[in-house]
Amino acid sequence: MTDTRKPPRKKPQRPGKPAAPREKATLHPRNRHQGQYDFPKLIQSSPELAAFVILNPYGKESIDFANPQAVRVFNRALLRAFYGIAHWDIPADYLCPPIPGRADYLHFLADLLADDNDGVIPRGASVKALDIGTGANCIYPLLGHSDYGWQFVGSDIDSTAIAAATTIVKANGLSKAISVRQQGNRKQILLGLLDSSERFHVSLCNPPFHASLEEAQRGSQRKWRALGKADPKRKLPVLNFGGQSQELWCEGGEIGFVTQLIQESALLPSQVAWFSTLVSKASNLPPIQSALKKAGVLEVKIVEMGQGQKQSRFVAWTFLDKAQRAQF
Q1: Which stretches of sequence are listed as region Disordered (predicted)?
Q2: Exposed end of the chain (fewer CB within 10 Å): N or C?
Q3: Domains and their CATH numbers in the chain
Q4: For the chain, how far is it from start to end, CA to CA, in angstroms?
């Protein structure tokens, strides 16, 4: 039986420095989305995708990532072709995430858990994962269960997102593997969400990156320019990939949200073996590392990831030593 007592305070390690970025921004070796997509094959299983396929400036088949409907249909096709998810949809204007990058986060988390398991990735229903802010798309539980067979609990503060995610889970017959619950207090993240007896091997989170709507809109415009979409004659969506307020911005922005997550995790140190969160900007790492040190974490890992031209990273931390984590 797992010891539910708060572990004794141990001398914390100095928060780690980020690993040097790989020479080339490539996906994790286990990521299913390597190379070019076979659009004829995708269209064969998802005929609705045909209406959204275009030729990019290099003459390759792609989709118009400035079109939210195209991104949604593309995601649906990828989930069906690569993960066996037959039914997936989200309400209009909710976050439609890029699947390859989301998959990368899960694969690197699997490597993290393997480090505690003699190098073997733990698979199957005995592994429990907590997805903080699962959103209407429920993407991390869908991918994580498909790739590793893990059990997931997804949380969110938005009732519409909860309803949409629940519909996806039920429509795909995954209710035994994935459950979704609402955080009733919008000012809390972990507190009040978990039963005191619950234990998770890992938690993951895609936090709100921005501090305001205006900041989120400026971020979208930068992405349009990077994609070559900044045509003044063309009316573009205000926010790329959609997204509700709670998905994209919060008071204090990413640093504020992650700092609160760290503080709350310190009050539940024995319930999650490894807490983790994405961090959008490397410049946000120093204050996050400072918050981790103040919280008295025992170990910190910063994992760099790369998808195409984009560099991203996640931070993972634990209050438990390896023997205590092994009890999970």
Answers
A1: 1-36
A2: N
A3: 24-30+93-327 (3.40.50.150), 36-83 (no CATH)
A4: 9
